[in-house]
Amino acid sequence: xxxxxxxxxxxxxxxxxxxxxxxxxxxxxxxxxxxxxxxxxxxxxxxxxxxxxxxxxxxxxxxxxxxxxxxxxxxxxxxxxxxxxxxxxxxxxxxxxxxxxxxxxxxxxxxxxxxxxxxxxxxxxxxxxxxxxxxxxxxxxxxxxxxxxxxxxxxxxxxxxxxxxxxxxxxxxxxxxxxxxxxxxxxxxxxxxxxxxxxxxxxxxxxxxxxxxxxxxxxxxxxxxxxxxxxxxxxxxxxxxxxxxxxxxxxxxxxxxxxxxxxxxxxxxxxxxxxxxxxxxxxxxxxxxxxxxxxxxxxxxxxxxxxxxxxxxxxxxxxxxxxxxxxxxxxxxxxxxxxxxxxxxxxxxxxxxxxxxxxxxxxxxxxxxxxxxxxxxxxxxxxxxxxxxxxxxxxxxxxxxxxxxxxxxxxxxxxx
Length: 416
Fold this sequence. Notes:
37% of the residues lie in helices and 16% in strands. It is an alpha/beta fold. Strand 5 and strand 6 (154-160) form a beta hairpin.
């Protein structure tokens, strides 16, 4: 009987593995540096087709486009006919996916409160176990359930409230785009250091309250582990005739919703949804953040990739917040501090100068009165893109901690 069960389990395993979408024969093409006209042309292509842009078209920069073997010829011909130069950045996407596959899930080792480590990528349960363990180990920390995802997964926030009522609040959000695995990996790395290394920086917890959401898109994130490594959106039913699921959660927020950099095609990677906050996950985050009193002094969104330190607004060129000079300077200072660790260059720029895109969470955070808001686009610059090798998690965390402390020290300057 035991033998039968084993065989049955093995069959299930084989089915689970073969159900994963294969990216065999897919390549990532990188364009040459784009001028304004060519960037605009590619932006139109992005919103009008279902091509997957790993790196968005922006003037003065290159774009990365993933193409299947079926599309390859026509995409290359179209680029050439429009005078856009390109080369192959990733020769075989599936090979990268296989090389960076997480090891089989491990139980927490004896004496450890959690299975989470930063030598590998981990699934949603492991992320939630990690924040729960931090809450259980510290009487000043707790877990706040903020609602369920579309598919019924609990969304959990780690609240670190040692500073107590009236102290400045900070909100950290990661994993809104499902395939950006380095985002929750680095965010949890930073939060572990923040909490477990308290003695090294007591003021960080004594004078500031922290709220951390490790997975802003739990259904999408889970789907990248089970079915499609490169899934980006939520997993909601959109009513698409073609069966396309999900909305780009970072185009779904209710501030200048749908104005720029989005598509209304339900099969597009940048489909913004029928209306602002159509996605229950974004409603949950919005409703929770609005309960925080005072309004957080800092909102932080972890993304990948491109090595950028972005500041708002992103919905249009030249749309700067009143205090943009201090935000810009802090982005520059944080990028300098990050560089000093491993020599990794992050470019501190305004989000819209990269490309205008409306409905992002960082714009909304700024719109409700947060003083500092950043989106950090983590490693790398495209050699691996979203499929970053696991041995880069810890160095990414180390350098981000340096940038992070620069920002926190600025926040502390104004705390009495």
